[in-house]
C-alpha cells in the first residue's frame, strides 16, 4: 500500500500516526510545508517502506541514522529541505537503494560509499560543504580533523579499558577464539545488527556469550558505549558484562550466558514456550524489566536511558528472570537532564524528557506483546490498541478465563498508557513500576487462592 500526498499544502511535523498503516510500502509527502526533524525511529514507523519522498519541505536538523535500518528501501528523496550535518554512513550500506537525492540542503562532510552505481553527483548538488566521490575530494583540514577524532576515540577506548578492568575482565582474542572453536558456526546462537553472538565454553567450565562486532564497519562508538554503560552498572535486571577484547581490528564483548534466550523467542517463535508463559510469569517478567528501567531512569546518580528497548534485547535466565541487554544506544543524563557530551557518542536529537519517554513507549510495546502475544507489526492490524480504550478482546485468549481477567485488563491499560501518542501523557518509569507492583501483588493473591483449592 502506498500513500501519495504531494503538493497538498500540508503543514506540521512528520505525521507519526502513519505508523498505524502497518502495510505501508510507499510514502510521498513532497511539496508541502512540513517542518521539524525526521523522526529518529523512522525505520520503526515505516518498517516495510520501499519508496520514501520527503523532498520540497522544510525538514531541518540532522538526518537520522535510523534511515539506514530501512532495509527494503529503493527510493529515498530528501532534497530541497533544510537538513544539516553529515550524511549517516549507514545509508550507503542499504542493499536495495537505487535512487537517492539529498540536493539543496546544508549538509557537510564526506559522502558515504554506496553499493549502487546509479547515485551520481547530481544527487548531492548545492551542498557546498559535502566532499568525496563522486564530488570533489575532501580537503586535508577536514581529513585531519577526523583523523584526530579517530585517534581520540582510540585513546579514549584505551583509557576506559584501564579504568574498567577493575569491574570487567580483559580477555585475549586467542582465549575467546579457542572457547568457540574458532568462532565456528556450531557455536553461533544469534545474529544481531552489530554482529554475531556465540556460545563459549571456557576450560574452567564457565559458559559465556560472546558478541563479535562486525569488523567491516566502524563500531567503535557502540563498543565504547556498551562498556561504559554495562561495565559500570550493576543491577539484577541488567545483563552482566563480564569481559571484553580489543585487539587490532577485533572488538568483542563477553556476557554471562542466558540459558533461556530472548523474550522475543519465547513469545513469537515457539508455541510451546508461549503457552508456558502464563500470565503470572509474564507479569513477573514485566515487573523485572520495569524495575531495571526505573533504576536506570531514577536510581542512578547519572540517569541512563536505554534507547532501544524491545523483546529482542530482553534475555531470560534459568529462572525466567529478565535481563536488559544491548546498551549501545544508551545515554547518560546529568541531573538537569542535559545529555553528557562525550564528543564521540551519538547525541540524542530530542530533549532529556523525550529520551525517557521514548524508553517508556518502547516498554509499552513490550507490555503489549506480553499481554496480546502479537508482534509489534501485528498490534495495529485489526483493533487499534493505540487509539481506543483497551478491553479483554485484545488479550491473548490463552491467558483469559483463569481467574485473573481483571489483572490482565489492568496490565493492558498500563501498556496503552505507555504508548500514548503525546509523550507528556505517558507515565514515568517509577509510576509504571508501582502499577506493575500492584498487579504483581494481585497475581500473588490469585496464585495463593488457586493453590488453596488443592490443599
Jot down its keywords.
Protein kinase domain-containing protein, membrane, Phosphorylase Kinase, domain 1, Leucine-rich repeat, LRR (right-handed beta-alpha superhelix), protein kinase activity, globular, 455 residues, alpha/beta, Prot_kinase_dom, six-stranded parallel beta sheet, 10 helices
- CATH-defined architecture of the largest domain: Orthogonal Bundle
How many extended strands?
A: 21
Tally of separate helices? 10
**Please, what is the CATH homologous superfamily of the largest domain?**
Transferase(Phosphotransferase) domain 1
Radius of gyration: 23 Å
The SS-based structural class is alpha/beta
General description of the model:
The chain is α/β, with parallel strands linked by helices and 455 residues long. 31% of the residues lie in helices and 18% in strands. The protein is built from ten helices and 21 strands. The strands form five sheets. A six-stranded parallel beta sheet has the order 2-4-6-8-10-11, with no helix packed on it. Helix 2 (140-164) packs parallel to helix 4. It is globular and about 65 Å long.
Amino acid at each position: 500500500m502506498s500513500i501519495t500526498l504531494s503538493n497538498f499544502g500540508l503543514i506540521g511535523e512528520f505525521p507519526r500516526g502513519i505508523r498505524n498503516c502497518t502495510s505501508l510500502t510507499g510514502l510521498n509527502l513532497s511539496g508541502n510545508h512540513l517542518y521539524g526533524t525526521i523522526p529518529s525511529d523512522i525505520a520503526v514507523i515505516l518498517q516495510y517502506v520501499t519508496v520514501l519522498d520527503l523532498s520540497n519541505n522544510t525538514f531541518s536538523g540532522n538526518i537520522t541514522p535510523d534511515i539506514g535500518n530501512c532495509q527494503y528501501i529503493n527510493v529515498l528523496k530528501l532534497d530541497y529541505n533544510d537538513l544539516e550535518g553529515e550524511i549517516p554512513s549507514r545509508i550507503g550500506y542499504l542493499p536495495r537503494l537505487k535512487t537517492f537525492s539529498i540536493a539543496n540542503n546544508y549538509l557537510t562532510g564526506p559522502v558515504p560509499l554506496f553499493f549502487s552505481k546509479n547515485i551520481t553527483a547530481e544527487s548531492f548538488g548545492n551542498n557546498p560543504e559535502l566532499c568525496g566521490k563522486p564530488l570533489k575530494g575532501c580537503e586535508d583540514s577536514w581529513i585531519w580533523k577526523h583523523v584526530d577524532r579517530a585517534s581520540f576515540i582510540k585513546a579514549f577506548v584505551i583509557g576506559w579499558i584501564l579504568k574498567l578492568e577493575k569491574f570487567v575482565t580483559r580477555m585475549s582474542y586467542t582465549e575467546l577464539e579457542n572457547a568457540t572453536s574458532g568462532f565456528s558456526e556450531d557455536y553461533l546462537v544469534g545474529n544481531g545488527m552489530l554482529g554475531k553472538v556465540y556460545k563459549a565454553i571456557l576450560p574452567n567450565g564457565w559458559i559465556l556469550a560472546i558478541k563479535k562486532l562486525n569488523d567491516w564497519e566502524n563500531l567503535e562508538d557502540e563498543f565504547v558505549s556498551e562498556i561504559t554503560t554495562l561495565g559500570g552498572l550493576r543491577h539484577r535486571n541488567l545483563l552482566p558484562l563480564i569481559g571484553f577484547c580489543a585487539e587490532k581490528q577485533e572488538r568483542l564483548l563477553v556476557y554471562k550466558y542466558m540459558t533461556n534466550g530472548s523474550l522475543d523467542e519465547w513469545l513469537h517463535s515457539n508455541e510451546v514456550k508461549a503457552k508456558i508463559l502464563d500470565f503470572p510469569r509474564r507479569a513477573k517478567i514485566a515487573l523485572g524489566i520495569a524495575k531495571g528501567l526505573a533504576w536506570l531512569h531514577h536510581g542512578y546518580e547519572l540517569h541512563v536511558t536505554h534507547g532501544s528497548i524491545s523483546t529482542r534485547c530482553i534475555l531470560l535466565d534459568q529462572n525466567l528472570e529478565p535481563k536488559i541487554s544491548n546498551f549501545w544506544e544508551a545515554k547518560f543524563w546529568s541531573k538537569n537532564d542535559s545529555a553528557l557530551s562525550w564528543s564521540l557518542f551519538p547525541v540524542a536529537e530530542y530533549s532529556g524528557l523525550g529520551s525517557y519517554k521514548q524508553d517508556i513507549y518502547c516498554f509499552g510495546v513490550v507490555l503489549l506483546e506480553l499481554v496480546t502475544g502479537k508482534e509489534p507489526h501485528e498490534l495495529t492490524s485489526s483493533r487499534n490498541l493505540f487509539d481506543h480504550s483497551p478491553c479483554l478482546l485484545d488479550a491473548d485468549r490463552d491467558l483469559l478465563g483463569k481467574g485473573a481477567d481483571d489483572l490482565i485488563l489492568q496490565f493492558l491499560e498500563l501498556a496503552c498508557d505507555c504508548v500514548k501518542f503525546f509523550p507528556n501523557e505517558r507515565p514515568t518509569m517509577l509510576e509504571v513500576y508501582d502499577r506493575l507492583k500492584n498487579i504483581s501483588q494481585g497475581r500473588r493473591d490469585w496464585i495463593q487462592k488457586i493453590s488453596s483449592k488443592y490443599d
